[in-house]
Every structure is written in structure tokens, then in C-alpha cells.
Design a protein that fits this description.
By secondary structure, this protein is an alpha/beta fold. Helices cover 26% and strands 33% of the residues. The chain contains 7 helices and 11 strands. Helix 1 packs parallel to helix 4.
Length: 272
Amino acid sequence: MRMSRKEEVSSARSDTSYEEPDLYEVLGKYYDIWYEDQVDDVQFYLQLAERFGGPVLECMCGTGRTLIPLAEEGYEVWGFDRSHAMLDRLTAKMELCDEDVQSRISVHHADMRTFECPRRYKLIIVPFNAFLHLLEREGQEAALRHVAEHLEEGGRFVLSVFNPRLDRPEELVRHRGTRTMLNGEIVSRFEAQTFDQPRHRTTVHYFIDISRQDREMRRVTACFTIRYMSYQDVLELMESCGLEVVETFGDWHFSPFTKGSDMMVFVAKRSP
């Protein structure tokens, strides 16, 4: 049975060990249009769902960019996020889906460090670097222990994070694209990064220029901090939380991971 979006599984804590959800009050409006061309990862998760089956749990599901396609393919999907702004956008998108698709989706407000679900899942996913918003080791361990508890015997947990490349220049502002919104706004996104290597953290700075023909351009700025992890960091963390990594990939096409890969995609099962 699909629960109401307003039914909270656990209360979100406001602290500095987790990226503040208010960030997405600013970015949520533009999230889907920025990533509308990114479909390789969605196809990757659809192939894994075909391989391992459902039900599927998506932790930190955001606006449903992955969750909704899974439901459209016939899988029962349970998702949660800590950001009300992102969940509001997901709920609005769900209302445009067919009723049978909506019936396969359960969406909730929850914190990955404390979530509790009424069942176990054949596939649990944390896509698109979302796990790195957990800034402290203790929070990461708590999250993965909850994952292990909710994973069915023979099921798989999939975690994707970027492969840290600290040789890239800091504070170099990069243009990440320009999009036109349905309301006529032209939105350009620029990005810069700074690194705190002793604490394994990087802060991403967004500069969002918004213009329309009938208005002057305005700029919105936002930043967030994530805790990057090395390949060995992830392996050790998984092992300490009752998860055994059985496959690793370096992209969304199931290519083997190498030191030069941009992505690290870990597929794990519950440890014996």
C-alpha cells in the first residue's frame, strides 16, 4: 500500500554532519532540467533491477529521476529523501504518471542514518554521489548498517560515487550548461570546487544566472560540502558494516573500475 508523502519515517536532524537540505530549496527547481540528458545511469539501474528483481529501495531519491523510470518498468519502488523541496517535486511528477505507476511507488521523508522500512528489498540503490552528503564516518556507518538490515538474502546494494581526482585545479569556474525553462527563463550554471584534503571534503560552489527578455539578469549562489572517498575507503567501510563488495564498475556501461575511471560503482551483498 502506498503511504502518504507526508508520513515521515523518521525526523531529519539539523546538524553539520549532513549537507543542509535547504540547499535544495534553491537548486530543486532546476535539478531535473540540468540532468535531463543524463540517462546512462538510469539505464544502468534498470538493468540491475532486471537482473536482481524487486522490490527496490532508493535511498536519497531526490526528484525521482531514477525512481519513476523503475516504477514505469513495473517494479515496486520505495524511496526516501531528507529534502522536502526535492520530495515536493517528486510528488508533483508522480501526479503526472498513470495510476498503475503511482500505485507501485511509496515515497517518504527520512534520514538515511536512521531510516526504518517495514520490509526487505532485493535491490537497494544510492545513486549519483548522494551518499557523500554524509560528512562524518559515524553517519556513513549508521546508514550502511541500515542498508544491510534491509537487504534481502541474495539481494544487492549499489553505491555510486565519483573517483576523487585531486590533481584537478581548484577554484576554476566551469560552465556546466545553459537551459531554457518552460516559463521562458534562461538558466546558466557555473561551478567551482575547493578541497579540504585532511578532512576528505570538497565544497562545490554554484553560480546560477537567470535571465528573461522582460527582466534583468539575476544571480543565485549556493554551495554544498561533500566527503569524498577513495576506492579503499569504500571497501573498508562496506566490510565494517556487514556488506561484501562483489563487483565494481568504472562507468554506467559495466566497464571494470580502474584508477583512471571517473566513477566508482560498487555492488555489494550482505556478508555471510
